[in-house]
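User: Show me a protein chain along with its predicted structure.
Assistant: Here is one chain, sequence first, then structure tokens.
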Amino acid sequence: MQPTQTRTTARLVLNGGLAVPLPDRACLVLGRATAGDPAIDVDLTPFGARHSGVSRRHARLHRTATGFAIEDLGSHNETYLNAERLAPGQRYPLAAGDHLILGAWRCTLQVEAQ
């Protein structure tokens, strides 16, 4: 018998309760998409990202063996994890319920096992 693999679904939940689903991929670039820019996996523009100072390529989420990690991509307005500023280019482990700030755009990571 083969061991069962647990899959997880994840989303970024804004303060008002609106959820931004995250595609099931190994790495996801978060930011603001522009016309003809296929490099953004999760476009935060419809959720007020432009007015909140989110960069076009702001941060990258990585799926890891234990969950998720986040990496700031050298964004102009910085990325924060639970109120701690992240150094660009370094991965930081994430846990369900962690609070993220990209520029002034605030959300909470929600993860569910399937």
